[in-house]
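Input (ROK family protein):
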Amino acid sequence: MKSTSRDIRLRNCFAVLRHLIADAPTSRQILARETDLSVATVSNLVTDLIELGVVVEVGREDSGGGRPRALLAPNAAGGVMIGVDVAETYVQLEAYDLALTVVDRVEERMEVSENSPDQVIGHIASAMDQVRGRLGDRAVLGVGVSLPGQVDVAWGVSGFAPNWNWHDVPFRRLLTERLELDVPVYLDNPLKTITVGELWFGDGRGVDRLAVLILGTGVGAGLAFGGQLYRGATNSAGEWGHTTINPAGPECRCGAKGCIESYVGAPAILRQWAALGGRPDTGSQTEAMAALAAAWEAGEPSAVRTVETVAESLAAGVANLLNLVNPDLVVFDGWVTAALGDALVPEFERRLAAHAMEAPLKAARLKRNTEERNMVALGAAALALEGHLNRLNTVGSRSRR
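Output:
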């Protein structure tokens, strides 16, 4: 689809605001240099953002002989964005100011049996009530919610959440009615929200071609080009975990055989450890992965062999991604990366060159996410911030004299 002048202006607006959030206070001149935009373009965008209450002037600095330059910062005292991370065992809600700094946080634990839409929405509503009671008169500008599974972004529908057996749940409508908030609600899945979080406040800021690999119970690849999340025709882009590396391999939960996820997803890793004589039945899946990491650290042969086997499959899968997408940066994220990364990532990197083409391998930087903040909730809030800017008619619509 051809970009309109409004699309281009909004992309530029996002780029300016991302740099401003990361480096405030700063000036129009520095923002122009960092974004490769003209000073005039940046000045026009900043004027819009100031009028929208998103940016404020916070002082002046010496310009080296000319007029003092105005210093800019996000309007941290303005409205707030809500980011909600919905997982199988918890709901975490975070309120962010316009600098994407957390101003409040609530976590609601959920039993595995609490998996109906009404029960999940009840936990979100409970967390929202607590936060709204503490925000006072600060306006909520938007709510972003990350849901597991496949999400229809345009219609606000949870298309398919396999672990909850949800099919075509009109989640946005149900949540909006329950919260009684007259603000837009944006839905997506963790893969997309983490990628947006990386674009706004992580390693992906300023990166032209970004891939974020999520290693967890399932696996996937969030993709972003030119500072924008790439969704594909049906919001299905990034289902890297369901690409095939062995047509005769084990059956995946998607029904196909030999998917990457069936080799490097958490259940697959623990099955391989059990087959090699390990003990993956220690408590929860998270506890079992921690036990595997500890066993590898202790040099237990079954754990060492499991890590080597998983690393070989991961290298083949990542090589396919590098050869196809040719990204500048690949960020590894997800709870399996956090739990097993010290063992798995070095082994994977040693094997990657045997599978990837030389040019894309040399071009790509590989990095593990080191952010301690909840990137799912942050990304959900950033989606709401993007939506807030996009729905305001004044952005890009005022004629300049």
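The two ends are 30 Å apart (CA to CA).
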